Amino acid sequence: MTHLMNTYNRLPIAFTHGKGARLYDEQGNEYLDALAGIAVNGLGHAHPRLTAALTEQVSRLIHTSNVYRVREQETLADRICALSGMQEVFFANSGSEANEAALKLVRFLGYKRGIEAQTIVMERAWHGRTLATLAATGSDKARKGFDPFPTGFVSVRYNDIDAVQRAGDADSRVAAVWLEVLQGEGGIYVADLDYVRALRRLCDDRGWLLMIDEVQSGIGRTGKWFAHQWAGIKPDVMTLAKGLGSGVPVGACVAAGPAAGVFGPGNHGTTFGGGPLAMRSGIETLEIIEKERLMENAVAQGDLIIGGLKRRLAAVRGVTQIRGMGLMIGIELDRPCGELVRQALDAGLLINVTHDNVIRMLPPLILSAEEAELIVERLAPLIVALLRSQSDVNSKTTAKAA
Ligand code: PLP
Q1: Which of 82, 123, 144, 355 is most solvent-facing, going by the fewest CB within 10 Å?
Q2: Ligand 1 pocket, CB under 6 A
Q3: pLDDT value of residue 314
């Protein structure tokens, strides 16, 4: 028993330290980390350069507040704008908060235009756990019991441009379209790049903001700084978190074009957001990703993992699809497979299952080729065994019934 609120089904394990893509538990057992703190620890654990920079920062300055200029904040905003081609940044402390800022921005733009702005969102989307981001999130399970929600959202089918067009035709107050280029929590569904480009054109034609949630897919994870860059487009609003701080909490709402200059002093704010420690972590993270060519590595190791999994699993009955981009990888089965998380843990591998039947892996960007192969070696037999044992049970039950 602990005094923690019962919000998580935690695995019965605690880690004491990590190094690279490895974590060590209280008994000294080693695990290969294919989850990276849910896409947060892109640099792995205890990266020497990040450790040194954070230690230096902590010894000098952790927090001052947004009452004053924060030089590290200005530097990180410059870097993010240079990498994205966008214009301005509001720093928050998490993905949900970055998304709240984005939603407030749409509403405030609507207010200035004299409309109650509506945002088109996607089925299976995941944008966070605050009330507004949950209202925009397409998970009935996460939303259940939390009515009443803030209004202002229209949900449409993902990857379906006609559905977006129809929703826009039906309501003249639509002011924005919001999506993940890869749906992470929703089950690693990847949008067609043509669809993303068509959305850009549609938003331009109709004067809507194109908003992209890169909280999970951003900061090099798919092999580009931001997943939407694979489509060669630029959003008006982009949100970041997770990998940006390498574990130090940080979120960012980035704006460009019609979305820039919307807020003035007093329209939005935060006590902690953009503090020197989180900003330093962001600055170092981006520099390390660039210097160590980690985006190229994400593509190479992602290809190794997906290729290896396909070789060993593609013909196995019960494996529906193996998909992903870079180091954002999903294996969809035709049945729930939550128990695999515990089985993988026992085999020394940290993974996750989302949407009940999608095994999800988000390894650190520093993963080596040997580690990529080890992931496949440890995971593939577990999936085969799970599917076989359940087929055996099914055929025995059928035989009995007959
Ligand atoms: N947006 C996306 C795409 C996410 O994957 C998540 C978290 O999983 C969030 C937003 C919410 O981020 P946070 O948990 O930091 O509030």
Answers
A1: 144
A2: 94-96, 99, 126-128, 180, 184-185, 213, 215-216, 241
A3: 86
Residue pLDDT, tens place only, 202-225: 999 999 999 999 999 999 999 999
Residue pair 70/89 in contact (Cβ under 8 Å)? The answer is: no
122 Cα: distance to centroid of ligand 1 (angstroms):
15
List CB contacts of 240: < 8 A, sequence separation 6 or more. 80, 95, 98, 214, 215, 218, 219, 251, 252, 254
Average pLDDT over the chain, rounded to whole?
A: 96
Counts for the chain of helices (H) and strands (E), in that order: 12, 17
Given the CA of residue 129, which atom of ligand 1 is nearest to it? 16
* Chain segment 84-126, per-residue pLDDT in tens: 999 999 999 999 999 999 999 999 999 999 999 999 999 999 9
Q: Which residue type, as a one-letter code, is found at position 296?
A: E
DSSP state of 339: T
Q: Encoding tokens for residue 77?
A: 């905003």
Token pair recorded at residue 59: 């010894």
Pocket test for ligand 1, best of 216, 237, 239, 354 (most atoms within 8 A of CB): 216
